[in-house]
Amino acid sequence: MNVLATETSMQNEALLKQPSFLRHAVSMALLFVLVLGIAGVNPFRQTLAPMDLLLAYPGWDNAGIDTPLVNIERSDALDHRLPNWREFRRELREGHIPLWNPIHQLGAVGIQAPIFEGLSIPFLIYALTPNEAMGYTFAILANYLLAAFGTYFLLFFMFRNRLAAVFGATVFAFCGFNIAWAHWPHVTTGALIPWVLATQLRYWQTGRLSWALGFSFSVALMALGGFPFVALLGAMSSLTLAVVLLCAELWSTGINQLAVRRAMGLGCAGIAGAFLALPGLLQVKDILGSTDLSSRTGGTWFTPYDIIYMFGFDFVNHFRVERIFSAGAPAALLALLALCLIFKFPNRFAFFGLIVAIFMLATVFGAAPAEFVEAIPGFGFNAWSRGSILFGLSAAILSSYTLSIMLSSKESVSPLKINSSYKLHAVLFLCVLQSINLGYWFRQYNARPDIDTFFPITPSISYVLSKILPGQSVVADDSFLVSGFLSNYRLPELFAHGFRTDAQRKIIADILPSYQTTYTASVIQCFDINFSSRDITYAAIRFLLIKDNCVDLDYETSGTGQRATLPLNSGALKGDLLIDKSMNATNVQVLLATYDQDFAPSAVTLDLYRDALLVAHAELPPEAIRNNQFATFRFNQDVPLAAGTYRYIISMIKPDSEKPLSAWAFETAGGATYQVGSNVFPGMPMIKIGDRVRTPQNFSTASVEPGISVIENHAVSGSAYYVNDLSGQPDADYGPVHLATYRPDDLTVEYSGATHGWVVFPIRINEDWRATLDGKPVELKKFLDFFPAVEVSGRSKIRFYYDSSHLLKTLELCIAGFAASVILLIVLTGRTSRPRTTG
After folding, report:
1. How many Å apart are CA 395 and CA 389, to the nearest integer?
2. Do both 378 and 266 map to the same domain?
3. Collapsed DSSP state (helix, strand, coil) of residue 91
4. Do residue 253 and residue 148 come from a single domain?
5. Which among 294, 417, 555, 679 is most buried, taking Cβ atoms within 10 Å?
């Protein structure tokens, strides 16, 4: 008790000595340089946008730009964050508040929904910067600077040592979690956690109203950061700090009026922040309310033994976003040292860091029973491993605590009796070493391509942009990787990244039965597209961008077991294929093995015979053959194959190559055999024959660039259509409906027909959409339980608009609640804004 009281007294004595502005400025400047050095990007020539992933896919082969691929786990930035940010930015710069986003899955709430980060500081920076690529770089850097500066103030308020605070700030800002999730709202949200804790602590120490208001705004910004689970972790950390401060107060001086008033003041400030964030949080509630979250469950990637990766081994052995958490080897060593020092030199803030570490070990690393963890609010449908951001927080606090003791000049506190200048230089060296360590990891995970790579236009994209109309949309196959990438070009995609309603899933499953890659993302194979689906026309999908050589697998060998054939170095691979139906073959695929070599040791040919007649020939260069992957032998033209037996011969052009090449084969295949050289074996090589995808008559194909085909659906000729019934599968007639005016949240169409029916605008709406018919409000129905529809009986003008009155009423009530909370806070604060004389 006496030791803790002494430590508290020392903290308060130091608090009374106001630090010089110049020293803080120097510390902040040092931290600023360290952050920029760790990121290592020149924003005037490079961008932190993951264009390396975009340009790695065939859809951009003709953009004339090439850049090395650094990380494949950055697709969410390209199919979710940036499409929404680009739309919000465009609307704001045109003078409109984007309350509705027509790009996201054919329609979604706009900037007011926190899950799109439109109410965040990084987005504000991105929107205000004239150059988009530069703006995105500044937005990413803003998150790291926010995290670093917030942590600096938190640690300085805790330990009163600037250099220790600088070190700890880099630890949290660039912990493995923040490096790995650089392009997700996880970091936007987590960067505000230190600000919440710093303002909370400073108000407790000084009682000043300004810090209480800072706490309110920090809470609001954290809640609006875009990832509720990380915000929940921040709220739990704040509550834990409050408990630690109260317990320290009771331990040192007992209950007193000042402590009670400040605790109540913090409660009012927190409620005020919640009122500021409430309108946005209600938008998230509405979105999640219409979404089936049953597939989202708790659990963690880690075991208690994985804590050893805090030294950075995870960056080597587990180079995956969900597995990275280390905050650098120097920070890990200092944090472990703190566990030894904390009992000799007790400190309530070090105990707080220890409590956070214990909570993290119990949840993130699965040390606690799963049923206990799942009982914690929010942990039942979130991956617990994403709580590893708390490792960065606890490591920052504990390492800063260790350094503050090492740098202390008082023998009663510091165990190191070394000249102060030596200790200072040693800590500066640790800061540099830590920055080099984190900078290396940051660049291993985050690309820095040239600024000119930022969303280049290709001939196919340009062609579609010149023809598409409002309300119309596109589908892109895996040539463009994940659905949603083309939304960056203001091309709406029904399959884009995001939560999907039950009605939406029915529509997209009819268009593409295998649409779902993850719960929120889709990677489309062109041969899986059901071109005969009426829902393609109902959803106003006018263009489909697919690979030029898109084929359907019309024939595939089958059998049981698998083994590698003798190397083709021993002779050609020969055998018979029994084809049971006629087809037009465009290619033959064979599963080959290069024995862990980057490519084949020789070019390979494939010949296909019908009796003695050579019907097809193809050759592949060595670099087109990869280990344990299907090699595709493409024919110069479609090869008509009638039903019957064909002879295949697969040969190496240079069979005398020292390195082997084999095919994979089924061990048994209904009595079939194959031959390598003069040796005959039971089984069948793994072979597929592809037939070109056929489209109905209302589709046409344009090849405006090599490798990509743009298929146009001529049934979609306008922006809205007429149906004679809302049930069944009526014909969609775009002819009698004309788009008169258009804004994303307010549009008018004119129906020129004379028959009774329904006018449908092919966007996804929610309960805040309204409609008028010839200026009079009418009931808004839904077609396919998804698209808005208005009943018509003849020539008429229909207006669809997004009604924001409910949002405005909620905002007014929340502002009133915020004002009431602040007034109560002012009353509670009173004249007590002076440094505390106890913890």
Report:
1. 10
2. yes
3. helix
4. yes
5. 555
List, in sequence order, every residue forming a beta bridge with 551; answer none if it has no partner: 692
**Pairwise CA distance, residues 390 & 583, whole Å:** 59
User: 640 is written with which tokens?
Assistant: 């008509």
Sorting pLDDT into bands at 50, 70 and 90, what band is 88? very high
Instruction: Looking at the structure, tell me whether residues 671 and 736 fall in a common domain.
Output: no
Structural contact between residues 631 and 625, judged by C-beta atoms closer than 8 angstroms: yes
Amino acid identity of residue 831, one-letter, is R
The lowest-confidence range among 4-8, 287-291, 746-750 is 4-8
Examine the domain organization and report whether 737 and 787 are in the same domain: yes
Q: Phi and psi for 314 in degrees, rounded to 5?
A: -65, -30
Which domain does 651 fall in, by range? 552-692
| Number of DSSP helices (H) and strands (E) in the chain, helices first | 24, 28
Q: Which among 382, 415, 445 is the end of a domain?
A: 445
Domain count, the chain: 3
* 473 found inside a domain: no
What confidence tens digit (pLDDT) does each residue in 297-324 have? Answer: 778 888 888 888 888 876 655 567 888 8
Looking at the structure, do residues 758 and 630 belong to the same domain, yes or no? Answer: no
Same domain, 681 and 742: no
β-strand partners of 574:
649, 675
Same domain (yes/no): 167, 47: yes
The secondary element (H helix, E strand) that includes residue 554 is strand 551-556
pLDDT digits (tens, 9 = 90+) for 143-194: 999 999 999 999 999 999 999 999 999 999 999 999 999 999 999 999 999 9
Phi-psi region of 795 (alpha: psi -120 to 50; beta: other; left: phi over 0): beta
